[in-house]
Design brief:
By secondary structure, the protein is an alpha+beta fold. It contains 13 helices and 18 strands. The strands form five sheets. Strands 7, 8, 9, 10, 11 and 12 form a six-stranded antiparallel beta sheet that branches. Strands 1-6-2-3 form a four-stranded antiparallel beta sheet, with helices on one face. A four-stranded parallel beta sheet has the order 14-16-17-18, with helices on both faces. The chain binds guanosine-5'-diphosphate and manganese (II) ion (MN). The site of guanosine-5'-diphosphate has 17 residues, from strand 7 and strand 10.
């Protein structure tokens, strides 16, 4: 789960990580009011969306006076913003963060995440902050360092010093960075985050360190035990279809192709998508209907798949282990009738009562194509999608 920058910065403050003076707003008047209260002679207006890369597309604006704060706010609110981290539809801007402007001397990069390869929580740091870290990693990997935290020992002072030297920090800044890293580590563990990224972490002209940007990702499997984090969820920033699927216990992810996939089991779903690609097709989605599926779930799954206009054919691949194939076949038939499925549906069933299941799906009068072999089913669905 993701949260907004202004919410991440509220958590930063609780954990002793310094952030710019600022407050969120949801109207242009409110934004102007916030700027007036903050005082000073310059403010940053930042679009709050669950994606980075805002700076390059007008989602971060520097205002010299209150009229500009209101003007920039009016321009951003109610629009959608498309960045390199969103899809082509972008994300809606419903809130803003108004902050005082700080004079930037240098922009640094600092993040903490789980490194699956080393099975450790690690910090990643670079003096080349402010830009896309993937680009830095690609073009000048020597500018990035990482330190692994041993779970029993925790974050060590020498590790913070190592990062501080790499970032070119001196004197009291070294201690300040240690405090920031400890805050990130504590926050990471306390709230079951999967990533916290500060890009940029700035050094001001007076030498202070501040988290100018803040991004936190939480482990979806842990948010239920952190109600205060769950309360920060903003469904407007998430895919409608994925939200809807979640309510029905379906695991759905939108993709770019034209072949809808309905499969039971995440592993089988991945294998099915691989096979579709191998046969020259492109999956429109990942969809795991789960082990104990029923007619209602199958209907909802069809509705989800077909709500995507690019879907030209559907591949159903179900292994009847817990549920029997004839029950699934009846479910598919009911769904095709209820949901008025008009695109061709290739069905590959395997497992208990498979013969009865296949019999139910032949000669139905609908465009249902029972297949006995997975490779053949994939070939068939690719051909049908191409023909459509
Ligand atoms: P992102 O593009 O979505 O990652 O948004 P950021 O919060 O990282 O802002 C992008 C860029 O805007 C930063 O790298 C800074 O260069 C600039 N920026 C943001 N806040 C300030 C500020 O308070 N003062 C100045 N001078 N620049 C800022
Ligand atoms: Mn950023």
């Amino acid at each position: 789960m993701n949260i907004h920058e202004y919410q991440a910065k509220q958590l930063f403050q609780i954990f002793g990580i310094p952030v710019p003076d600022g407050k969120p707003a949801i109207t242009a008047d409110g934004a102007e009011q916030v700027a007036r209260e903050l005082g000073g002679d310059g403010w940053v207006v930042k679009a709050q969306v669950h994606a980075g890369g805002r700076g390059k597309v007008g989602g971060v604006k520097l205002a010299k006076n209150l009229a500009e704060v209101a003007g920039f706010s009016r321009d951003m609110l109610g629009k959608r913003i498309v960045t390199i981290q969103t899809d082509s539809a972008g994300l809606p801007v419903n809130s803003l963060l108004i902050e005082k402007i700080y004079p930037i001397k240098r922009e640094l990069y600092l993040s903490i995440l789980v490194d699956r390869a080393s099975e450790r929580v690690i910090f990643i740091a670079s003096a080349a902050g402010g830009m896309d870290i993937e680009t830095v990693a690609h073009e000048s990997p020597e500018q990035i360092i990482s330190v692994q935290i041993h779970p029993a020992a925790g974050l060590q002072a020498y590790q913070c010093r190592k990062v501080a030297y790499t970032l070119g920090l001196k004197g009291y800044q070294i201690k300040a960075l240690g405090k920031i890293m400890q805050g990130m580590y504590d926050l990471f563990l306390a709230k079951d985050a999967s990533q916290i990224e500060i890009n940029p972490l700035i050094e001001t002209h007076s030498g202070d360190l501040l988290a100018l940007d803040a991004k936190i990702n939480f482990d979806d499997n842990a948010v239920t035990i952190h109600p205060e984090i769950l309360a920060m969820k903003d469904p407007s920033q998430e895919d409608d279809k994925e939200n809807h699927a979640h309510q029905f216990g379906l695991n759905y992810i939108t993709l770019e192709g034209n072949i809808g996939c309905m499969v039971n089991g995440a592993g089988l779903a991945m294998a099915t998508m691989d096979l579709v690609k191998l046969k020259g097709g492109l999956p429109a989605n990942f969809l795991d209907v789960g082990g104990g599926t029923n007619v209602e779930k199958v209907c909802e799954a069809f509705k989800l798949i077909l709500s995507d206009n690019s879907v030209k054919a559907v591949l159903v691949n179900i292994f009847g282990g817990i549920v029997q194939c004839d029950v699934i076949a009846a479910g598919i038939l009911a769904a095709v009738e209820q949901v008025h499925v008009t695109v061709p549906v290739v069905v590959r069933l395997e497992g208990t009562n498979v013969e009865q299941g296949r019999a139910l799906l032949s000669n139905t009068g609908h465009k249902i194509y029972p297949a006995d072999d997975l490779a053949h089913a994939a070939e068939q669905v690719v051909a049908l999608a191409e023909a459509a």
